[in-house]
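Q: What does the assembly look like in three dimensions?
Context provided by user:
Components: two
Sequences:
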Amino acid sequence: MKWWQIGLIACLLVAFLSPLASSSPDGLERVAEDKGFLGLGREAPFQIIADYVFPGIENEVVATILAGLIGTIILFGVVYGIAWLLKSRRREAAK
Amino acid sequence: MHIPDGFLSVATVASTCVVSAGGIGNAVRVANSKLGEKHVPLMGVLAAFIFAAQMLNFPIAGGTSGHLIGAALAAILLGPWASVLIMSCVLIAQCLIFQDGGLLALGANIFNMGIIASFSSYYLYRSVTSFLGGNGRSKLIGGFIAAWGSVFLASIACAIELVVSGTSPLAVVLPVMAGFHALIGVGEGLITAGVLSFVAVTRPDLLQLQRI
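A: Here is the predicted structure of the complete assembly.
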């Protein structure tokens, strides 16, 4: 097994831990709440996997894990793909 | 620290968008000229790790949580421009797919957590490790300080954007943003130093890649 395959599996295991995350507001959200400007925030005009909960699944733990796994795989694929394209495009240019 | 839509003025949205778009453009150019065989899978794994780890909010004081940004880890391992590229992809995906961070605020979020966090941590890491002599322990201390500084400075950039947008006065928002993120930065520092020491033990060659 290649090192990056092990790395990717480790990332997916991290995604499995996502339901354990603290649900307290983060630093900025907390400041916005305390200082009275949280109400200025607007919802997104569309929702896909809003707030890292996969829609249509009753069990929130499962929905959160699914959202985490999907995002982790997408980010690996997209960034690997972009890096591969940037690297190979240069090789073609050099020929 | 993902800014939602509604917190920033049109001028702040426009100027951070222009700066971030320029930053991404230059990151693509630099990556195109420097990327090697080994960088490609590490870029993918780091993006996956940063996304997954950002979901794991850890509690800090007073009913508040924080999560990893990850720019310091990416900048230390791959260099600041590669880190800008990775962070931009993570933030764009979080905005478009997970509705975390506003669409209009995307430029500001990339500026804070991508550009500011990557460059501040990269140069902090280099200064601290060279000051301490460059051995294994100095790299861990450098990683911790760089990661802490990246969160702290990104939160100050975020506070300034809120101030110039007229959302909150400087004297109100800056001390609390900096204060909370000084604590969150400790988490960032511990995670970054932990991953760096894990990489140093398992794949020390990955610490020797050309920085992009």
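Follow-up: Chain A has a mean pLDDT of 91.
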